[in-house]
Amino acid sequence: MSERMRVGYRGTGPGAITPDGCAVDLYLRLPVWDEPDIIERAAPPAARILELGSGVGRVTHPLVERGFTVTAVDESPQMLERVSGARTVHSPIEELELDERFDVVVLGSFLVHAGDPRVAHGLLRTCRRHVTDTGCVLIQREAADRHDNLPQERPLADGLIRIVSSDPAGPGVRSVHAEYVFPDAHWTQTFLSRPLTPEAFERALAEADLAVDTYLTDDRTWVRAVPA
What we know:
Rossmann fold, five-stranded antiparallel beta sheet, 6 helices
């Protein structure tokens, strides 16, 4: 993501902060939720996985432990320094050009909702460029109520995540402010999100030569897409 496109992204708190506002030390504390389970159910056994936006390896490490061969991509070298057991590639996702294709490409962390539609399109084109013709792309979408009834809180073992606000920041774009509160540390992150209706999401996939194969979760936040 270019410097110009990072306008509207910022973060505060101890330790290194990436240009899009993510705190490395915070991501080291976040638990593993159900992402590895969802990916494992949707992927062929022992698949070669390209994980886009791996961060510190919160999802990477469980996938490696389950027998997958993972290539972890992130534009933050500080994040990638914490990844072990997987090949790492330092690159903006939308600019990635590997001379190989993968059984599964994973685009998690709601990245498909990038505030700039050019970035979102670039992310999906990267997915298509790197998936085999018989492979699949696993995409995490925002829940339908993600921007409603705020603030919302999600407890952690020794802290909480609070989505404080989601305010209009341009046509179709929201500015989201989040807090991460622990007894010994406090981080904030502000980022842009472009909510997508199911129809808009499927149009974006089609523009990248992808199509929905199936929704993997009851709340339709995880999607398996295939080459169109």
